[in-house]
Write a structure and sequence with these properties.
With 183 residues, this protein is α+β, with helices and mostly antiparallel strands. The chain is built from four helices and seven strands, in the order αββββαβαβαβ. β5, α3 and β6 form a beta-alpha-beta unit. The longest helix is centred in the C-terminal third of the chain and has 21 residues.
């Protein structure tokens, strides 16, 4: 029961302290530059909770990475998680709050929250964990006043690693939710 309230408490604390947040350098994660195409079909390794991939439709994200807001905090689109966890980390709450404020003030903006895991665990477990991570970010955004119709979630589990490797450094960068603005 306590685990359910921790993300809510963290978001509330981030809101209260949003004006006091200090700037710090964040190590960027290399993102794939190639266009991606997703096919939401059974057995593809992806589950969706948004309309983009309903019914096996093809969703092309070509150029979507360039969509969305600019600015120091809003340019960051990766929320990281600890091992085997879907709780927002305190250092990532300001990022989620910033995107929440932007989305709440721009009702036509839409995002897809893409949940990812590292390679450890079974494929089924990782798909579920990626979905729980995407849902955790979604709940935090809803608390900021974002409309549910602006948000879609998808889980790729371990299928789309940001960094190749089987060490803690690579795993840490692969445990993430990507905030992808769509048009």
């Amino acid at each position: 029961m306590m685990r359910k309230w921790i993300p809510l408490a963290l978001v509330c604390a981030a809101i209260a302290l949003a004006g006091c947040a200090s700037k710090r350098a964040v190590k960027p994660v290399a993102e794939a530059g190639a266009p991606r195409t997703e096919v939401g079909t059974e057995g593809s390794g992806a589950t969706t909770a948004g309309a983009e991939a309903a019914g096996g439709a093809v969703v092309a994200s070509t150029g979507e990475e360039a969509a969305g807001p600019a600015g120091e905090q809003l340019a960051k689109r990766l929320v990281y998680f600890d091992f085997d966890s879907y709780e927002l980390r305190p250092q990532d709450t300001a990022l989620v709050v910033a995107h929440g404020h932007y989305l709440a003030s721009h009702p036509k903006a839409r995002v897809r929250l893409e949940g990812h895991t590292d390679e450890r665990g079974s494929r089924e477990y990782n798909i579920g964990l990626g979905e729980r991570r995407a849902q955790a970010v979604k709940r935090a955004l809803l608390l900021q006043g974002v409309a549910e119709s602006q948000l879609a979630t998808v889980s790729y589990g371990e299928e789309r690693p940001a960094v190749a490797g089987s060490d803690e450094g690579a795993w840490a960068q692969n445990r993430r939710v990507e905030i992808v603005y769509t048009q």
